[in-house]
Every structure is written in C-alpha cells, then in structure tokens.
C-alpha cells in the first residue's frame, strides 16, 4: 500500500479492509457489495420507515428521540463526526430541542464498526448484533438497544459497516424525522414535532445495488455559474473568479450524502475543481465523497486544467500545446501523471477516467482508430501502476462510451476486464446500449451515464426539469435488468431545478427492487410529503405528475421549432410552432398548461406559510413559467398568422406576447430577488425563448442557447411579433377550421373554395367552426345561412368588432344516410363567402371498436381489445396517455405471426376498402439490445405481419446524432409507416406484434385519406 494513502480518506471499506484506492475494480457482475443479507440480518425498510410521530409510545420498547444526546467517538472518520453534527441540527429543526453531546440514560450512539470504540464495545459485549451489516459496502443499522452500557437505559444505535454507511445511517434518521435532503438547496422547512419515536428492532436500508452513485454538475452557465461565486465567494485560482470553491462543494457533498449518493463529477464549464480551490479535494475527503472526472477528462484532471495553461504553441510540459496524443504525447502523458500523483499525494478517494476525447466534448482530433485508443488506455494504466506502485486493477477505473466513443466498443475494442465500462444514454434520456449477456461477467462490470440536462445537437435543454418519471424508471429498470450496477452518474445541469429526477435516480440506484413501477405514484407522493408535509402531499404529487406528463411532449426550448419531412429530408423551421392550429391543437395544449397553473395556484394557497419559498423553487416556478411560455407562444404564432391575414386582432396579440415575455422576466425576478430573502440572486438567468435566431447569434443558434461571445444574454421574442396598419373601413374575412396552418382565408386569401373538415357522428375532434374576422377598425353585422336543415350554427347573426368564432354542428336525426352535402353562406360588410360542408352518416350497424371518422382512426396503445403474451402498461410515458411495452425487458427476440406470438389487438371499423397507412408512434428508443435493431411487427386480420426496423425506417442514428435522430428525440416519438390493403369495409383487427423487447408503443394512427397534420396526432377515435 502506498505510503501516501490516508486511511481517514477511505470510506468504502471496513477498517480491516484495504483502502478503496487499492480495492480494484468498481464492480463486477456478481455485485458482491450488494449481496443479500445473511440469515439473522436486520429488517430492510424504506428510508426512515422506523420513525413515528405518535403522541405516546407507539410500541413497547420505542426510543424517544426528543432531548436525547448524540454521542460519537472522536476516533471515527471526520465525515461521520460532521454528519452527527448535521443530525443534531436536523433534530433541532424538527423538535426545537438541540441534542447534547454527553452520555445520558437515553442516548443516541453513532459510529463505524471496526473504527469506533463505542460501537465495537457494544458488539464485543453482545449488546449490538451487526449480523448482515459488518463487512458490507455502505450499509447501516439503526437499532434500539436496552441497557447497552452502564448508566444508559436505552439507546438508539446508528452503526455503519464503513464510514459512509454510518453517514447514510445518520442521514436516514434525518430523513425519517422529516428533514428534506433539499432543505438548504430549496429552503424546505420541516414540520415541527413534539414527539419523535424510533420503533424497536433492528432496521437497515440494505446495501446499495449500484456501487457508485453520483451526479455531474455541467452546463452550469449562466445559472449556477452566476449564482455560486456571488453567494460563496469567487474561485481561488488566479484570474478565475468564476470557479467554485470548497464552501460551495460542501453543500453539494452534503446533499449527495443525504440522497445516499457517493460520487461526483465536478463542474466543467470553464472550471477546474483542483485549481479553483486547493481545499476542494480535501473537503471531498472530509465529507466522504468519491471524486471522478467526466468522460472528456481522463486521469483525474479536469479538461480546463489543460485549457488554462496550454495554447499559443506551448504547454507547461514542454509540448506544443495541442490536446493530441499523436502530436503531443509526451506532454499529455506528463499531464496525466500529475493527475494520478495528486490523487495519491492528497489521499482522496477517486475513480479514474480512462480514454481520451477531443477538447470541448468532441471526438479525437487524431481520428478514432482502435489501435490509437488501445495505446492510450494501455499507457494510462502504465501511468497508474507507475505512480501508485500497485497493479492497475487495484485502482478503480472507468471508460465511458459517450457519443463517438461507443464506436470503439461496437468495432470490437474491449477495455481490460477490471475496468468499468460506462454505457450512456443519447443525451435525451434513451439508453444507447445494454450489456451483452455474453459479456456480463467482466470483473469491472458496467455503468451508466444519463442526462437531465444537455447542450448539443437537436437543441439545448437547460431551463427547467423536463424528465418524465415513468420514462426515467423504464430506462433505469432496463439498466438494472441487464446487470448494469457498477457506477451510475447523471448530468444534473445546475443541480437546482432538477431535484425530483435527481432524487429518484439516486433512490433507484440504491435499491431498484424497492421501486417497481407500481410504486411510482407512491414515490412521488413521498417526495411531496418530504418537502411540503404529509397533509398536502396528495395534491402536490398530482401537480408534479401532471407537470411531468405535459413536459414529456416537448422540451420548452423547442416551442418555436417545427420539424417536418420534405422529399425525405428533415427540415427545421425555427420560426414556427410545432403544435398546429388544426384540431385546435395549439389552443388545447396551451389550455392544459394554463389549467395546470391554475391548479398549482389553488394548491399553493392551501400550503402552510413555511413552505412558500420551497413551493416556488420546487414546483411553482417551473409550472407557472412553462404555462406562461405556452401562452406566450400561442399569442406569438397566432399573431403571425393574423398578420398574414390582415386581421384587426393582430396587434392585440403582439401586445399579449410581449406581456408574456415581461411576465417571464417577472417570475425570474421573483426567484432571484424575493424567494428566501434574495438567496438565489442570479440563479434564474437561463435563456429559453430566443433560440434559433441565426442572424443575431450566428450559425449555432439553432441548438445553442442565446449567447454572444460565449456569454448568455436575456431573451427576446423570436420570431418577432408583427404589427400591422389596420384601415378604418370594415372588411369581412373568413377563416375555416382546418385551413389555419396554411394561412388561407376568404374571399381574398386562398386559391381554393372554403370547405370545413367532414362531419361524422363518431368524430372526437373538436367541433368544426368558422371564424369571421374584421380587417378594419369599424364593426359590422354578419349573417350565416344554412342550405340544409341538418346543418346548424350556434350564432347565425351577430356583430363583429375584431372577430367571432362560430361553431358548426350537425343534427344527425335529420341527415340522410350515407354522404350528404350542404353549404353555409356568410354575409357581412358587403361581402359574401360560401363554405362547403360534408356529413358522413355512418351506419351504427357497421360500427365496432374504434370507428373511422374524418378519414382516420386514432388509437392510444393502452386501449387494446386483446393481449397475447406478457405486456406492461407504462402509465404516462408517452406524449398523450400511456405506453405499452413487451415484458420482461430481457425477453428474447420473437418471431411474429404464430397464434401464440405476443401481440396487442385492436378492433377497428373502416368505412371503405383500399390502401391504408398505419403509423406506429413509439418512444424514441435506440437499438440498445445485443441483437441489434429495434423491431416490431404489424398486420391486419389474418395477413402476415410486416416487420419494421424502427431506426432503419426513420433513418435515425444515435451515434452520429443525425437530423433524423434529432427529430425523433425533439418530438419524443419515432413515427414509422406501413401500407396495408383492406379488402372490404367493416370491422377489422389491427395487430401489433412483439419482435424486440424495450419497444414502447404510444399510439396507432390509421390514415384512410384524411389524417390531419398535427404534432400529437388527433384525439383518440370513438370506441363502440
């Protein structure tokens, strides 16, 4: 063992074990650190489940926590002693009584097995049974012990298998008594309690399934990057005031430990952890945090450590300043040696990143040859052995297959067996690769790098939490099911703002089996209770769940980008709404957000005053600000439509959009200046509206945040609203439902006759309408006449100031069978417009299942008629309702077509024979399985199934991150089409067949000739 290794910095093993710096691989397939408790071990409980607030002793032998002193040995790890201080603070926050430090008849005893004389004495005397805890990784025990030592009648003993286990045990008590892990980060005040009891018995939260569990602070400018140096003081590196110092990281470390995390990739945007404060690594050791570096920063050195000192043709190591292993290898190797030497000299616990990427999160400038990467990894391991004096396998190492690096693996390059191979998502929450069962038993095991924040292709998403909890669960469950348990780390962006997904990620990594899909709603309610109190947890959880479902439709940064296919090519339009005017889609989605904001406001009004700040930080801001953004965008894009049509209402909508921008600023100002007395000044500064303005920001504006010279700037409206000159004289204009997206209007703004979408007694689309608008400032009277008694309007006469919407309906009792035609004649301001109308009176005898109306059938996947095989409903995973996926996720590839083959069946009624197109809308998953590809089968009735390779059909490539992939991830759906011949009108069975697991079906759309262009697709068809 190296003489430089500090045993006080080693938290991952008991005293008798070797230090973590010598403990070898991160985690093998056997996951020995997470093996089940042996017989006689303590009962595994949910966090804090052994705490009661009953007014009197809930069970004989319970321990009263109020007023009990907390005793810890000074010989224990400094992180344990420090965490005990936090536990004292937490108990005082809850009870108003601060625990003492000296022994009493009722006392709390805290310590690490094999390190604390206090705990070891209890074990030796037989008073404390540590069966199932001792010798494990990060495992804790909470036990009520009677007469543990002379002078003590009853004690709560918190013991850990290693120092981090003890820390987790102490913080679990804090959680149980009602202190949120986010108490400091979100100003969460706990519920005050007069009585706090620890139930009798031996309790544990078990051994973590994933060995290293952490977060990556990234993309932190402008929000965190503005706030942190102002609040904690500047960085200490010369000329680098924006660095994050040890006081800042102390708050991050504490939060991680409260969430049972143990691992950190520190901030990288212009920041260097080791240089920004010489105390940073020391503080990590004092807290008990394992340090790592990101996928682009090998050998325990942040990439900014190179950028700050290399350039102009030179670097501190005598090289030419290039970040190139081919052209500057000796300097690069010397730089790496210093990183490993610092880890050894300072004695901090670390996991070393191997490999090499290009500077600035890019591919290597030297190309991606396998031989080069083999040489790089081999040289890095030689350096590790040289500096540590031990075999490389005794130092934990990871190789992260991020972006282009996965190609090395796919082409056959394998890291040494002891290295943990970290697999990744595609930056948008869809895992790219799972371990191949044939290679599952590698000693180093596998890891996962995931994202709640991203900067890059498609478009940045950095502003508010947009993670969908069910989608997150599905992806983490897949990683768990495929044996990925070595190291999980997630990009949390600014950290604050991604609280809910961050907490779930770390909770799930600790014990995936504790959180099956059936408990997701319970988890969300517990999260709400921890931050706002049990009494209000239900309504708060409902708001959070609805928020996650609505955000799953599209990132808010993308609300001014429509993505279409034109002649097979993906086309971006950054001055158009992705939602359509057709089917009132833009109106409907905006109203859903506004309704959620109203509900959130009602919930907020019922909460205690102590939760006001926490509510705005954790829920209120993200709901209100996103709802406001949707309202702003609706006004903005409706303004642009109206300007093209010359409507008198145009300028009012411009003012409405501008008022929305001011409200956006006002909400941010409240966050920055009012919440918690101005504690978060400068934090809410992330631009999110002005993406896409290449004239203002340059060619990267399509994906990069609004910035000039790499500095983010405040938003403006893009596209800009328009104001028009409205003449005095009245002039009638008519717009009809279904024509708004083209901008057509009558009599002067269209080349075809006005026609409403066809009417059907089975339609579920919003009611058809005509809109009468004024192109002048003088009001006028209007009149609408119908040519048939069955065609009705809700307001046949009236007055138009700016505009009037008139709904058109059909009296089906008076419509002749089959197809009927009629027209509306609209008169006003001396002008007449005729609108054609068609009614399709489908016979009720023909209708079964989902009935065609308007030229299409729309089906939500969960509403199947028959299920063959095992499927799982993923509630809320899709853009509309839920998704259906084959189960289990590790099932083998199946051949569709046999009577027993797994499938979903849907009964539909089609009105005519002929060719139809079926669009299957599936979640934008990647071909992560060892079998390659991601396939499903589809057929009608007894026809042979067509097999569709989803990614091949869409052209999406998660490796190159091409425009087809960006379209699918931006839209949060893969759309694939198949053609089918229907031989007769009437009832049919549409069958969706399992080929590969992990396919998530959201919707099926049958286009018989009238499927409208919309973002979410039409509302689900009527089912009879």
Brief overview:
By secondary structure, the chain is an alpha/beta fold.
Task: Break the fold down into its secondary structure elements and pairings.
Blueprint: E1 43-44, E2 51-52, E3 63-64, E4 70-72, H1 78-95, E5 106-112, H2 117-124, E6 140-149, E7 152-160, H3 163-176, E8 197-198, E9 202-204, E10 212-217, H4 223-232, H5 246-258, E11 263-265, H6 273-276, H7 280-287, E12 290-291, H8 303-307, H9 329-346, E13 352-353, H10 370-388, E14 397-400, H11 406-410, E15 420-424, E16 446-451, H12 469-481, E17 487-493, H13 499-510, H14 520-532, H15 537-551, E18 562-566, E19 569-573, H16 585-606, H17 612-645, H18 650-674, H19 694-697, E20 707-708, E21 711-712, E22 732-736, E23 754-755, E24 769-774, E25 780-786, E26 791-793, E27 797-800, E28 803-810, E29 818-828, E30 831-841, E31 850-851, E32 856-860, E33 866-868, E34 871-875, E35 882-886, E36 903-910, E37 914-922, E38 935-940, E39 946-949, H20 950-954, H21 963-971, E40 974-982, E41 986-994, E42 1001-1007
Parallel strand pairs: 1-9, 4-5, 5-7, 10-11, 10-17, 11-12, 13-14, 14-15, 15-16, 16-17, 23-30, 31-36
Antiparallel strand pairs: 2-8, 3-8, 6-7, 6-9, 18-19, 20-21, 22-24, 24-28, 25-27, 25-29, 26-28, 29-30, 32-42, 33-36, 34-35, 36-41, 37-40, 37-42, 38-39, 38-41
Helix pairs in contact: 1-3, 5-7, 9-10, 12-13, 14-15, 15-16, 16-17, 17-18
């Amino acid at each position: 063992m190296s003489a430089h290794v500090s045993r006080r910095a080693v938290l991952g093993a008991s005293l008798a074990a070797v230090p973590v710096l010598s403990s070898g691989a991160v985690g093998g397939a056997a996951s020995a650190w997470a093996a089940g408790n042996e017989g006689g071990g303590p009962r595994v409980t949910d966090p804090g489940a052994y705490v009661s607030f009953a007014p009197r002793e809930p069970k004989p032998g319970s321990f009263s926590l109020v007023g009990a002193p907390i005793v810890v040995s000074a010989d224990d790890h400094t992180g344990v002693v420090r965490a005990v201080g936090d536990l004292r603070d937490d108990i005082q926050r809850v009870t108003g009584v601060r625990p003492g430090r000296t022994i009493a008849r009722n006392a709390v005893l805290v310590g690490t097995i094999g390190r604390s004389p206090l705990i070891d004495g209890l074990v030796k005397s037989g008073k404390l049974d540590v069966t199932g805890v001792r010798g494990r990784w990060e495992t804790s025990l909470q036990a009520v012990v009677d007469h543990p030592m002379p002078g003590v009648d009853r004690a709560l003993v918190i013991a850990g298998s290693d120092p981090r286990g003890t820390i987790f045990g102490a913080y679990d008590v804090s959680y149980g008594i009602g202190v949120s892990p986010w108490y400091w980060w979100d100003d969460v005040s706990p519920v005050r309690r007069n009585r706090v009891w620890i139930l009798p018995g031996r309790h544990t939260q078990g051994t973590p399934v994933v060995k290293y569990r952490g977060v990556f602070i990234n993309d932190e400018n402008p929000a965190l990057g503005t706030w942190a140096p102002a609040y904690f003081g500047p960085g200490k590196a010369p000329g680098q005031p924006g660095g994050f110092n040890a006081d800042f990281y102390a708050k991050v470390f504490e939060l991680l430990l409260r969430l049972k995390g143990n691992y950190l990739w520190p901030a990288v945007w212009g920041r260097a952890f080791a240089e920004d404060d010489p105390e940073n690594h020391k503080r990590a050791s004092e807290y008990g945090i394992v340090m790592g570096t990101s996928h682009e920063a090998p050998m325990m050195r942040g990439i900014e450590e190179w950028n700050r000192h290399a350039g102009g043709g030179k670097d501190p190591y005598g090289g030419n300043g290039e970040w190139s292993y081919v052209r500057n290898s000796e300097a690069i190797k010397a730089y790496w040696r210093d990183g490993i030497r610092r880890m050894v000299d300072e004695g901090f616990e670390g996991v070393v990143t191997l490999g090499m990427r290009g500077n600035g999160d890019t591919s290597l400038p030297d190309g991606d040859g396998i031989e080069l990467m083999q040489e790089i990894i081999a040289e890095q391991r030689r350096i590790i052995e040289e500096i540590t004096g031990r075999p490389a396998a005794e130092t934990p190492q990871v190789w992260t297959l991020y972006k282009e690096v996965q190609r090395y693996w796919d082409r056959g390059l394998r890291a040494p067996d002891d290295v943990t191979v970290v697999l990744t998502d595609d930056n948008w929450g869809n895992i790219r690769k799972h371990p191949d069962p044939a290679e599952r038993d590698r000693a180093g095991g596998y890891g996962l790098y995931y994202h709640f924040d991203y900067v890059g292709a498609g478009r940045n998403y950095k502003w508010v939490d947009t993670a969908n909890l069910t989608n997150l669960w599905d992806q983490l469950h897949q990683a768990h099911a495929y044996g990925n348990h070595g190291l999980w780390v997630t990009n949390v962006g600014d950290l604050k703002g991604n609280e809910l997904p961050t907490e779930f990620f770390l909770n799930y990594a600790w014990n995936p089996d504790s959180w099956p899909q059936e408990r997701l709603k319970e988890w969300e309610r517990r999260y709400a209770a921890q931050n706002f109190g049990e009494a209000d947890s239900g309504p708060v959880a409902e708001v959070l769940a609805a928020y996650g479902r609505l955000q799953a439709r599209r990132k808010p940064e993308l609300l001014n980008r429509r993505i279409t296919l034109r002649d097979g090519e993906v086309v971006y339009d950054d001055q158009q709404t992705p939602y359509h005017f057709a089917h009132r889609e833009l109106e409907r989605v905006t109203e859903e957000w506004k309704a959620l904001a109203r509900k959130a406001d009602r919930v907020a009004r019922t909460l205690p005053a102590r939760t006001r700040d926490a509510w705005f930080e954790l829920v209120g801001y993200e709901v209100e600000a996103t709802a406001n953004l949707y309202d702003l965008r609706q006004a903005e894009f409706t303004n642009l439509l109206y300007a093209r049509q010359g409507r008198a209402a145009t300028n009012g909508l411009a003012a409405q959009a501008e008022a929305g921008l001011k409200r956006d600023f006002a909400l941010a100002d409240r966050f920055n200046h009012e919440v918690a007395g101005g504690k978060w000044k400068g934090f809410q500064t992330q631009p999110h509206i002005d993406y896409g303005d290449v004239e203002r920001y340059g060619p990267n504006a399509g994906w990069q945040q609004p910035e000039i010279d790499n500095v983010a700037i405040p938003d403006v409206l893009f596209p800009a609203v328009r104001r028009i000159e409205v003449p005095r004289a009245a002039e009638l204009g008519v717009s009809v439902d279904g024509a708004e997206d083209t901008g057509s209007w009558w009599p002067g703004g269209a080349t075809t006759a006005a026609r409403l979408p066809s009417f059907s007694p089975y339609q579920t689309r919003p009611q058809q309408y005509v809109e009468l608008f004024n192109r002048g400032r003088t009001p006028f009277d209007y009149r609408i006449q119908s040519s048939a008694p069955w065609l009705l309007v809700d307001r046949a006469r009236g007055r138009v100031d700016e505009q009037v919407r008139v709904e058109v309906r059909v009296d089906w009792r008076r419509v002749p069978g089959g197809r009927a035609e009629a027209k509306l004649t609209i008169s006003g301001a001396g002008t007449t417009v005729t609108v054609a109308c068609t009614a399709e009176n489908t016979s009720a005898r023909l209708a079964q299942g989902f009935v065609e109306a308007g030229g299409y059938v729309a089906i939500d996947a969960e509403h199947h008629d028959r299920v063959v095989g095992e499927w799982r409903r993923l509630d809320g995973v899709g853009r509309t309702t839920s998704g259906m996926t084959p189960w289990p996720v590790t099932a083998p590839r199946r051949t569709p077509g046999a009577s027993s083959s797994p499938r979903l069946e849907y009964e539909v009624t089609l009105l005519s024979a002929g060719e139809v197109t079926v669009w299957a809308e599936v979640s934008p998953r990647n071909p992560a399985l060892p079998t390659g590809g991601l396939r499903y089968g589809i057929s009608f009735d007894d026809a042979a199934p067509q097999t569709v390779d989803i990614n091949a059909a869409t052209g999406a490539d998660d490796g190159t991150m091409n425009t087809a992939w960006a379209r699918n991830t931006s839209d949060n759906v893969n759309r694939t089409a198949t053609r089918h011949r229907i031989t007769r009108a009437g009832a049919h069975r549409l069958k969706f067949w399992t080929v590969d697991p992990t396919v998530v079906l959201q919707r099926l759309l049958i286009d018989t000739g009238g499927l409208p262009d919309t973002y979410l697709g039409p509302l689900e068809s009527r089912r009879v």
